[in-house]
């Protein structure tokens, strides 16, 4: 068997079996499952408790309509109770926790309803808002009746205006489609970002561990550094795809089985092209950064030096992510168009554009072409540095070491 | 079948690490590489292994350059010891063995044989970080010989081991040599080289200062040692003509003399002065030669 495959298989299976991988995958899977079932979880924790709110109705006319209005709005967790006692008594009952709150209803000087809400805290905005909303409805009915409008006229008054948005460009996405695309693209962008950082780091750590534990000298005397570097990069790529597919299947099936969340995420119709692009751009981004991370890892002699070595590259990934976040709200900005061709940013930003807009095929091809060219360059350059870098020990401080490493490979 | 280095030069920028090194190591020989720290031993090994390219000259094994295609024929124990700390011994050896072109069943068979031999059969399922340093070294030695290499390069194989383990490892090395393996090893422990090698080379600042078989080297060195234990003072021998070096010991004196003749003159000089308990003419030790050759150019 070719040594490339031995390294690949070794990297893949050791990592796959490692505790840290199993635990992170499990936690992430739980998280994905949790987010996909968020509505059920919220329901589960907030269903039963009804809140008792006492009403002191000074008008004697508003209590019944308010109760009726609350009922029609469909919320059942507020239990209204008429209270005939004094406000002092009511206050006591709220203070000793018997009631959630009490409301004093009255008329203002125009003979329209007004209310005051008393509770220990007014942080529970939900109860408060529901009451306010119900009272507002009653007030509207009373006020319109007072000026003699018929219910039909009132309805007409409050009907929303018809405002259609029509894109004239063929294939352009409608606003609704754009919103749907946005959440999917957002999730996938986030996944690309996390995966590139996480697996890029894993590559550096792999190489740095081999170097710092000095097993590297045996390795490079058995298999060429190029085979090792690419065996590792592809092994970790395979690992990331395994995790990606696993999480995607869990997320997809649990969201699909939950119609409420499906509509929130806009997943009624998942554009297959977006998913394919996500995987393609993730892999391209991964390969670009992985070669860089491997190159840097080969220069490090101790694990502690890893972080300072890879920080500049990590910042590039972070920058790409933030530009992409900005682009989510304005994908057609010229800045976004330009950065979608810069190889270091392209994996995220070109993906954002193809996910949100209709980008012509030549633009995608050009961006991918540039990326592939850059990856090839760094792969070639990285392999050279790697070959010398793995033989260097001592204090690693800067990118000057790249030059030293290249010198080592010369005659 | 032999390992041949022809006029090999390696420069790093302005610094010459190996300077005009020519060696021929016949098959089945054990070759000792001596040198102070920084003499160019490890660089030479790395060039033999193909990890570094010589600036000039060429290195061949059986007439062909060594590259990764021949890595299954070569075993290497680096000076800096290291294995994957988190992996079990078995996983470790399987991975390293497969990289040397060996199949998994063969690796397990060899591993069991070697662990048995080093009397640590229960280590197979232990993680390397749990083992003591000396035992890690044994595992690493196994890793370097598990694929039965034709050419074995051992960089300081015995450093950091206790005497019992040194003996075990020495026996293993001798067995490998008797089985036909060509072995190159470096050390700064002269007695190991003296004990194991027919051929040796002393490197100093990248240059081979002494090179040949142990016997030739000792003979051509010319100088001999005289050890005298006597009951009377021998201090006047410090100034005796032909004495190169003298060192007073508890029981007498150690002398280094220019040639054998001198010893007879010393004998007649001290004869009759008192009771002589020991008078011995000895071959120079490798240590003497090393100090003379390497130490001289330090001055």
TrEMBL record, chain A:
<keyword id="KW-0472">Membrane</keyword>
<feature type="domain" description="ABC-2 type transporter transmembrane">
    <location>
        <begin position="19"/>
        <end position="380"/>
    </location>
</feature>
<feature type="transmembrane region" description="Helical">
    <location>
        <begin position="364"/>
        <end position="383"/>
    </location>
</feature>
<dbReference type="GO" id="GO:0140359">
    <property type="term" value="F:ABC-type transporter activity"/>
</dbReference>
<protein>
    <submittedName>
        <fullName>ABC-2 type transport system permease protein</fullName>
    </submittedName>
</protein>
<feature type="transmembrane region" description="Helical">
    <location>
        <begin position="275"/>
        <end position="297"/>
    </location>
</feature>
<dbReference type="InterPro" id="IPR013525">
    <property type="entry name" value="ABC2_TM"/>
</dbReference>
<keyword id="KW-0812">Transmembrane</keyword>
<keyword id="KW-1133">Transmembrane helix</keyword>
<feature type="transmembrane region" description="Helical">
    <location>
        <begin position="334"/>
        <end position="352"/>
    </location>
</feature>
<keyword id="KW-1003">Cell membrane</keyword>
<feature type="transmembrane region" description="Helical">
    <location>
        <begin position="21"/>
        <end position="42"/>
    </location>
</feature>
<feature type="transmembrane region" description="Helical">
    <location>
        <begin position="309"/>
        <end position="328"/>
    </location>
</feature>
<dbReference type="Pfam" id="PF12698">
    <property type="entry name" value="ABC2_membrane_3"/>
</dbReference>
<dbReference type="InterPro" id="IPR051449">
    <property type="entry name" value="ABC-2_transporter_component"/>
</dbReference>
<feature type="transmembrane region" description="Helical">
    <location>
        <begin position="184"/>
        <end position="208"/>
    </location>
</feature>
<feature type="transmembrane region" description="Helical">
    <location>
        <begin position="229"/>
        <end position="255"/>
    </location>
</feature>
<dbReference type="GO" id="GO:0005886">
    <property type="term" value="C:plasma membrane"/>
</dbReference>
UniProtKB/TrEMBL annotation, chain B:
<dbReference type="InterPro" id="IPR050763">
    <property type="entry name" value="ABC_transporter_ATP-binding"/>
</dbReference>
<comment type="similarity">
    <text>Belongs to the ABC transporter superfamily.</text>
</comment>
<dbReference type="InterPro" id="IPR003439">
    <property type="entry name" value="ABC_transporter-like_ATP-bd"/>
</dbReference>
<dbReference type="InterPro" id="IPR017871">
    <property type="entry name" value="ABC_transporter-like_CS"/>
</dbReference>
<dbReference type="InterPro" id="IPR025302">
    <property type="entry name" value="DrrA1/2-like_C"/>
</dbReference>
<keyword id="KW-0067">ATP-binding</keyword>
<dbReference type="Pfam" id="PF13732">
    <property type="entry name" value="DrrA1-3_C"/>
</dbReference>
<dbReference type="Pfam" id="PF00005">
    <property type="entry name" value="ABC_tran"/>
</dbReference>
<dbReference type="GO" id="GO:0005524">
    <property type="term" value="F:ATP binding"/>
</dbReference>
<feature type="domain" description="ABC transporter">
    <location>
        <begin position="3"/>
        <end position="230"/>
    </location>
</feature>
<dbReference type="InterPro" id="IPR027417">
    <property type="entry name" value="P-loop_NTPase"/>
</dbReference>
<dbReference type="GO" id="GO:0016887">
    <property type="term" value="F:ATP hydrolysis activity"/>
</dbReference>
<dbReference type="InterPro" id="IPR003593">
    <property type="entry name" value="AAA+_ATPase"/>
</dbReference>
<protein>
    <submittedName>
        <fullName>ABC-2 type transport system ATP-binding protein</fullName>
    </submittedName>
</protein>
<keyword id="KW-0813">Transport</keyword>
<keyword id="KW-0547">Nucleotide-binding</keyword>
